[in-house]
Amino acid sequence: MMHIVLAILFLAVALLAIISVIRQLKYKNIFALGFSAITALAFGFFAIATIISEITG
User: I need a surface site. Which of 2, 6, 33, 42 has the fewest CB within 10 A?
Assistant: First the structure.
């Protein structure tokens, strides 16, 4: 049960990072865009990996 909660939190952070990527594209802030993209990829990966791990057992 706790792993599902963790996956949901990871997914929420990944979604916020994706919103940040879009905002940073608008502001043309390359440094913040890079950090936002890395954050979105990392947290997205861990969210999907955690969900798959819970589904497969």
Answer: 2
